[in-house]
Amino acid sequence: MSDYVALTKPKILWLLLLVALASAVIAARTLPPVVTLVGLFFAGTLSSMGSLALNSYLEMDIDAKMKRTKDRPLPSERIVQPKRALVFGLSLVAIGLLVSWFTLTPLATLFIGLGALIYVQVYTVWLKPRTSWNIVLGGFAGSCCALAGWYAVTTADPLIAWVLAALVFVWTPTHFWSLAVITEEDYSAVGIPMLPSVVGEKKAAKFIVANTLLLIPISLLFFLYLAGTAEVVYLVGALFLDVLLLATNIKLLITPNKSNALLAFKASSPFLAVVFILALVSVLL
User: Fold this and answer.
1) Which of 2, 112, 217, 272 has the fewest CB atoms in 10 Å of its CB?
2) What mean pLDDT do residues 49-73 have?
3) How many Cα atoms sit within 13 Å of 77 on the Cβ side?
4) 157-285 in CATH: which number?
5) Is 254 exposed, middle or buried, given 0-12, 13-18 or 19+ CB atoms closer than 10 A?
């Protein structure tokens, strides 16, 4: 069972769930009905697990050639019949969509399904092997988590819903390009055109800084949804995170090496989760 769980990439899964659940609470400005929270948790968990398992299945040949991924369950042949992983992934997505249909709104179900489609078909199959902008366009899969959470609760304040979605969308390249600088040789060896392996570390660092400069104002836009003390709490917290992230990115730009890329990656890893938690706490205040 641990090998099948590993197919679903739990380190990514928890962040997707946090984004969806936090968006639902932010939309409601309080705890939503239990049915909504439970439905969103299970629908989001199952659909995301299935999508990530399908990604593992579709990329098992690539994973086998990369140092970072060669020990995953499929390339290491701990799961000896790969088609079981395919059935596992498809089943989880299907069950997740059914749970969503019966417990959430049609719009929430639409975004859960769209997130799975974009991640598996658009990002994994079409974009990743073809263009260095793969992670930019594929980042909308994560945005769908925020939109599913929001529209599971309300259709009001769509601007704020899309601000949260944009936050996920723009954070994604900063985060994954930093990782791709570290694993540049792996991606080059298998012919995946991740930006750093195409343009080199120095130019990739410029793109990372530029993307973070776009991320900062988007992260600050959420304060428009707040008032009073909550507004101050969010602004101070978000600004601190923004400055910390930008500082590590600038250090990578000045000295583009794997050590600084790791520092930038570590700074970006908790960024999205902390911003969403900060937004959630500020709304409840």
Assistant:
1) 2
2) 93
3) 0
4) 1.20.120
5) exposed
Fold of 1-155: Tetracycline Repressor; domain 2 (1.10.357)
pLDDT digits (tens, 9 = 90+) for 78-112: 998 999 999 999 999 999 999 999 999 999 999 99
- 31-50 average pLDDT score: 97
Closest to 256 (Cα-Cα) out of 198, 192, 206 = 206
Buried-state track 178-209, b at ≥16 Cβ within 10 A, e below 16: bbbbbbbebbeebebbbbbbbeebeebbebbb
Does residue 223 contact residue 235 with C-beta atoms inside 8 Å? yes
158-194, pLDDT tens digit by residue?
A: 999 999 999 999 999 999 999 999 998 888 888 899 9
Q: How far, in Å, CA of 230 to CA of 278, rounded?
A: 10
The C-alpha atoms of residue 116 and residue 46 are separated, in whole angstroms, by 11
Residue 224 pLDDT greater than 90, yes or no = no
Q: How confident is the model at residue 80, as a pLDDT? A: 87
Residue 179 near residue 164, CB atoms below 8 Å: no
What does the alpha-carbon distance between residue 219 and residue 276 come to, in Å, rounded to a whole number? 10
For the chain, what percent of residues have pLDDT higher than 90?
88
Q: Cα angle at 156 between 151 and 159, to 5 degrees?
A: 90
Please report, for residues 20, 43, 138, 217, the alpha-carbon distance to residue 149 in angstroms, rounded to integers and kept in the order given.
4, 11, 19, 23
Task: State how far the Cα of 183 lies from the Cα of 196, in Å rounded to an integer.
Answer: 9
Which residue's structure tokens are 């799961």?
79
Q: Torsion angle of alpha carbons 170, 171, 173, 179, nearest 10°?
A: 180
Residue type present at position 138: G
**Which one, of 177, 56, 55, lies nearest residue 118 by Cα?**
55
